[in-house]
Amino acid sequence: MVSLQPPLCDFGWKAREFNLLGIDGKYHTLESARGPNGLLVMFICNHCPYVKSIRDRIIRDTRELQQFGINTIAIMSNDPADYAEDSFDNMKLVAEQYSYPFPYVIDETQQIAKDYGAVCTPDFFGFNAKLELQYRGRLDASRKEAAPDAERDLFNAMRQVAQTGLGPREQLASMGCSIKWKDEV
Question: Which residues form the Thioredoxin domain (predicted)?
Answer without folding.
Answer: 9-144
